[in-house]
Write a structure and sequence with these properties.
Layout lengths: L1 H16 L7 H16 L7 H22 L3 H15 L2 H16 L3 H8 L12 H48 L11 H25 L2 H11 L8 H12 L2 E3 L2 E3 L2 E3 L3 E3 L6 H29 L1
Antiparallel strand pairs: 1-4, 2-3
Main location: membrane
Protein name: Cobalamin biosynthesis protein CobD
Subcellular location: Cell membrane
Length: 302
């Protein structure tokens, strides 16, 4: 009963209020992460062991505290849905992606470039309409997996402690998990642990995209194209998503001043603004399907 109440409550809170505008706990957590990096990785000289220690100090106390608080009966009914609400980002994903689609629809390329820059880490100043639509569609598919589905997965599996573990680990990957001279050794643990936590959810997301879209196109894209992608989890998600939408994603992109040749994902024409809105619909339908299944599972196990 608790699981059903909490998953529906958390998703409804996100639907109604979206991401907190002030004092989001992840902002405070980011400051903690910065201070830990300064302590354990001064001048980029930290080793893998330092990264493991910093990751543990950043994440595990909060997971333990959440688990202890959830042992208090009445408090658990409050903490569980709020933890999911703070970890999931379904409404926020739409709030970031929809302005890109609207700008492209109005042929306002400068605004579309500016808006898509909030979603992706690649350079956007010289992107044309197709490249902007491609970047936004890829971001919706991948962030849908990271910010929505994986959070739901770990919440269903371990409740509030699980979703806190996942969200903090995913945040540290976004901060430390880069192959740069400063972070390559120190951030190794954050990147690998995020890969582990996302491994099963990513494949369930790929299956969800396939089931809610062009099934065989998604499955074939997943089977043949995902192994070529450099990320073990983003590959299945984006390949299946592109196949489900019937568009071609991937291809060359510029990151931090360097061009990266990426495999083509999916099958079909290049994306337009319509692909962004269709990707959002795919993620939303999948998220509410997962919410329903988790709630029903919670009721059956009560």
């Amino acid at each position: 009963m608790m699981l059903a109440f909490a998953v529906v409550g958390g998703m409804l809170l996100d639907l109604l209020f979206g991401e907190p505008r002030r004092a989001h706990p992840l902002v405070l957590f980011g400051r903690l992460a910065d201070s830990l990096e300064a302590r354990f990785n001064p001048g980029g000289r930290g080793w893998r062991s330092h990264g493991v220690m910093a990751w543990s100090l950043a994440v595990l106390p909060w997971v333990l505290l959440t688990a202890l608080l959830c042992q208090i009966g009445w408090l658990a009914w409050i903490i569980q849905p709020i933890a999911l609400y703070l970890a999931v980002g379904l409404r926020s994903l739409g709030e970031h992606a929809e302005p890109v689609a609207r700008a492209l629809q109005r042929n306002n390329l400068p605004e579309a470039r500016r808006r898509v820059g909030y979603l992706v880490s690649r350079e956007t100043g010289e992107l044309d309409e197709t490249a902007v639509a491609r970047a936004a569609t890829e971001s919706v598919l991948e962030n849908g997996s990271d910010a929505v589905f994986a959070a739901l997965f770990w919440f269903a599996l371990l409740g509030a402690p699980g979703v806190v573990l996942y969200r903090l680990a995913n945040t540290l990957d976004a901060m430390w998990g880069y192959r740069t001279p400063r972070l390559e050794r120190f951030g190794w643990a954050a990147a690998r642990l995020d890969d582990v936590l996302n491994y099963v959810p990513a494949r369930l997301v790929a299956l969800t995209y396939a089931g809610l879209g062009r099934f065989w196109s998604a499955i074939e894209s997943w089977r043949t194209q995902a192994p070529l992608w450099d990320s073990p989890n983003a590959g299945p998600v984006m390949a299946a998503g592109a196949g489900a939408l019937g568009v071609s994603l991937g291809g060359a992109a510029r990151y931090h001043g360097e061009w990266h040749e990426r495999p083509v994902l999916g099958r079909g024409p290049a994306p337009t603004f319509l692909a962004i809105t269709r990707a959002l619909k795919l993620v939303r339908r999948g998220a509410w399907l997962w919410t329903l299944l988790i709630a029903l599972g919670g009721l059956l196990l009560a």
